[in-house]
Specification:
11 strands, alpha/beta, DNA-binding, homodimer, elongated
DNA sequence: CCAGTACTTGACAACGTTGTCAAGCGCTTG
DNA sequence: CAAGCGCTTGACAACGTTGTCAAGTACTGG
């Protein structure tokens, strides 16, 4: 039973088999009224024996760009669980809307990002969800001007009047810092991503603002930023903690950073004396002792809301732009509640 | 500068603007020879001012199903890092081939799986990569018979003559078990996924075969299987270890299971006396003390090879089916090298 | 019994693109 | 100078589908 690599059957093939016009087949496929039961029967049986399936490309093409039944999602790296959870959130909403998801990783490279967006646009996706890379994106700007529905996710683009969903990076950093202050810490070190990353900058700002508001000076030696892998963060943190003056608490403002810092604290055996609070939840947070107190993000929720925002725009091109800033309460696990020297 | 939600320009629009026939525009777009420089100039300038982009749907439609420039990937859950890393591997290969990736999560539900495959087929993807769910899939079988290129990933389907890429579950389990035997353990407990999952069954078989070959009886009380979340595995493991007789070593045969078991060992303070080896690497493996010894899988490698296998079939429909079983050496981190009572 | 109506069916154009073909032009060549 | 050739250009069909319209049939009511 080896069928040759045969052409997929089309409306015409079905029509031929059922001895009707191909338009009638179209009607049956689309469950239109006013087809005689007899013909419906014949057509349906022909469809079944031929294994006919309508070609969505032709369908959407005919219906004139109106809807291609797919959306595009440009993220940084799908292998990063933060982004893949977002993707899952998007997928769940898209599925409800009968829509497929095209996704691609930009690795934070604006050129790659533009290639992806272009490829999605060439497929005439109905809309885009984009975690923007740093830098200019002429393609994205052009599409925004054209009126292509775009929702920005997690990071804020230069253009300001856009649909946007992101975590409350600033507010989260404020709460994290205040949490440490409330537990008697005045000498807090900030470890975080390179500040050219938008969210990282916001988190640092939140840290500094809270310290300043509490009347505490922030020594620049207490701010460590850069763009590294977890392993490098580990080494960096060990070296830092072996240095001349140790802080009494650390705010690790990104998930990779948190992993590295936690490893360092354990390595040096000071995990019970130096407090730590992280931004972004990590798998190991509840496994280590003490558990790591964090300000979590809810990636699947971010994805869900971004997708809902996109579909809401698809439903109403005219509605005003929306921004959805998601706050999340601190998850207390122990590491952030180690008491500091202050009263 | 608010453009109305204007139609995207087509070949004809460009032709009108450049005062040529639309066929000439097509030629310029496709860089065909034998167009006069003057017309090329006019057309290119019209393309630039209008922001024209060819419609890939129409292109592929015209070129007759031959290639839609997209492949479909049906996985279990993209939020699971194992699968999202696979996706990344696929994406990297697809990108090189100028191909987009449609993906969707089946949650292991065969109905959902079939809906996804059907949706991909309706878009006329060039091929499919599928992590099959348990159970019958009439859609998949039909497509296989039709000759649609399909590569199976990670799990083996009932159909046997297919393209397949997976880890060496059996061999890995053998090596893991032997590793524990070599370190003086004879009383080993197996914790793993429900055995109706194909890979889980293979791993259990590997465990049993190795124990038996070593002349050791496997008490059924030492085999704990089921389908749970990490939290439940934690509770289950704690209860098990509080029970009447403790094993001297544990083989946790899946990543969620490993997390739960590790937490339980730490909770009971026996992480230095009971050996553990896991199947599948986990993030926290090198963070906890002792580090967790594992038989890793290489998800991005699985994805890469599956994609390469798919494209190789797209290039040669006639080639015989291939199976690619990936072995990986044990990563030694400490937990698996805790010595047991045997000589 | 005839006009009018409601239903059923099919012919044809269109979506945006590429492949095929032929027409028009200027040039070479015998 | 006529025949032939090569280059450039456009008209038209086709991909697989849906929308529009008109033709055909079988009713109904007056």
């Amino acid at each position: 039973m080896t069928l040759p690599p045969s052409r997929r059957p089309t409306l015409r093939d079905v029509a031929l088999a059922a001895e009707v016009s191909f338009k009638t087949v179209s009607r049956v496929v689309n469950r239109e009224d006013n087809v005689s039961p007899e013909l419906v029967r014949r057509v349906e049986s022909a469809i079944a024996t031929l294994g006919y399936r309508p070609d969505d490309r032709a369908r959407h093409l005919r219906q004139g760009g109106s809807s291609s039944g797919a959306i595009g999602f440009v993220l940084v790296d799908v292998a990063n669980p933060f982004f893949s959870s977002i993707l899952r959130g998007i997928e769940d909403v898209a599925r409800k809307m009968g829509c497929l998801v095209l996704s691609g990783s930009s690795d934070g490279d604006p050129v790659r990002q533009d290639q992806l967006i272009q490829a999605f646009i060439d497929r005439r996706v109905d809309g885009l969800i984009v975690v923007p890379a740093d830098g200019e994106s002429s393609v994205l700007e052009h599409e925004l001007l054209r009126g292509t529905p775009v929702v920005f996710l997690d990071l804020e683009p230069k253009q300001h009047n856009v649909d946007l969903v992101r975590s409350d990076h600033f507010g989260g950093a404020v709460r994290a810092t205040q949490h440490l202050l409330d537990h008697g810490h005045g000498d807090i070190a900030f470890f975080g991503d390179a500040t050219k990353v938008y969210s990282a900058g916001l988190r640092l700002n939140g840290f500094i603002a809270t310290m300043t508001a509490a009347g505490l000076a922030v020594n620049e030696h207490r701010i460590v930023t850069g763009h590294f892998e977890p392993d490098s963060w580990y080494e960096l943190a060990v070296r830092y903690l072996m240095g001349p003056s140790r802080p009494t608490a650390i705010f690790s403002a990104q998930n990779f950073v948190t992993v590295g810092v936690t490893q360092a604290l354990h390595q040096l055996g000071v995990q019970h004396s130096i407090a730590q609070i992280g931004f972004d939840d990590v798998d190991l947070a509840s496994v280590v002792t003490p558990g790591i107190t964090v300000v979590p993000q809810h990636p699947s929720e971010l994805g869900r809301r971004a997708a809902e925002m996109l579909f809401s725009r698809l439903g109403d091109r005219g509605r005003p732009m929306m921004r959805d800033i998601i706050e999340s309460p601190i998850i207390v696990r122990g590491s952030g509640e180690i008491l500091g020297p202050l009263p």
